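User: Can you predict the 3D structure for this chain?
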Amino acid sequence: MHSETAVAANAPAATKLPAARPPRPSTRPNGQWKIDGTEPLNGNEVWKQIDNGLAVRGRIEEIYSKQGFDSIDGTDLHGRFRWWGLYTQRKPGIDGGRTATLEPEELEDRYFMLRVRIDGGQLTTEQTRVIGEVSRDFGRDTADITDRQNIQLHWIQIEDMPEIWRRLEAVGLETTQACGDVPRVFLGSPVAGIAADELIDPTEAIAEIARKYLGTDEFANLPRKFKTAITGHPSQDVVHEINDIGLVAVDHPELGIGYDLWVGGALSTTPRLAERLGAFVAEDRVSEVWRGVTSIFRDYGYRRLRGKARLKFLLAEWGTEKFRRILEDEYLGYPLPDGPAAPRPKTQGDHIGVHKQKDGRFYIGVAPFVGRVSGQTLIRLADLLESYGSSRLRTTPHQKIVVLDVAEEHVEPLIAALDEIGLSARPSLFRRSTVACTGIEFCKLAIVETKQTATDAILELEQRLATIEAPHPITLHVNGCPNSCARIQAADIGLKGQLLPDGNGGSTPGFQVHLGGGLASVDREEAGLGRTVRGLKVTAENLTDYVERLVLRFLAARSADETFAQWAHRADEEDLK
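Assistant: Here is the predicted structure, written as structure tokens:
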């Protein structure tokens, strides 16, 4: 990343991203079904064609839950289980230095992470209570709100899955295609249908896609995961720039309000921001356009090498003009109207704090510590909301919770009560804007611990920086490995977990630092990735000292309207260390 030389009121422009390059020309097929045929070119593609994963539920209920962990077929365990939201979790006591050296069966425990799928983040208090009870009864009281609006539980045993599914499905929840090479959870605006400044409510569009395509064979075997984000709120609150397909509300000067279409975003180790196709999608066309883009990925996506099996690599080869032409000619059968880009957001997209609803009541956005709650907390939250006359809440793509339908006279009493159970409506600078992935506590890919490291840093920074006034939230994203589940390249301060030399011939947990990344927001004109500085790494032990030093340098050196991202991109390397 180059440093910016000009400081302006707008955030730094997005840097052109060559990272997600298409495969080099080769005589070998890439596994694109419409070009190369459907012959499987690797082991994953073989077993997906034999059984794409949906059928494994029957085996879980009829065989594995009755005969126990040792009865599970290896391909089911390490592959098809994901189609139902199940991953084996990391065995305790295995340090990060062994992550890349051990086989999956050496790293994994006999317990599972279970991901509860929550499309649009929409929950009732009854559903929240049931998730809490499942956590309490089967998951050692664990519960993490993810940055994709799901809730993850841990310590789940295969023997308990039939009862867990029975409880979840009795209240309209599911784990269907929460993981795997499928359309993952559909991100939706956490304030859909309630915000006074909403342009369009995407709730029915998301529900229609789920009704038609979730749990069906049509998209049960994609090249890899496929991520969707749809918002009708002007804050652009669903991180659409890093999803495979994004639909963002826009007011067309002739056609009225609909959606601006984006495709091909994803981070991981080869980040690429999504691109606009310049096409306008009417409200009643959302489902068929979503189907068209997803079908392109199914039919043209690269399947030979899993490291290249994301839509961003196909977009890098085709470009937006060809992608739109294929979508219209081969999948829709009609041209999409040209449309304008959505304007820059005017409000923060995390929805923290108190906001008026269109019906005169209020919604309140609250922050736990990096998404970590518990089963008991969820139960208490449900009880608390009902006692104040509310029965609805939402999870957010920022590991937060938004509670809905609060009468004005109940706002302050409810805020005080939420704070008592660890959910703050007026959080500190870093409690508000810190995100952390699962980390080495449960994840088999992780190298370092994240959740507790981030929480400890927040608590210490709350004391050290209590008297400062930051001009805007400063995002701190903590990731346990290079895969960027916590979106490290799109944060003001992004931390990629790795082991660093300890000076005594050994190693210590630490992070490579990315600075100045971010997505479109009230403080930023458009998305761009963070800057890396050669040798800029920080140990977990020194993390709090580093963040404090960096924030104070920014506040001392910034010009009048300069954001942290602008400063981080123009600052001398020595000022960032």
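The first helix runs from residue 33 to 36. The first strand starts at residue 86 and ends at 90.
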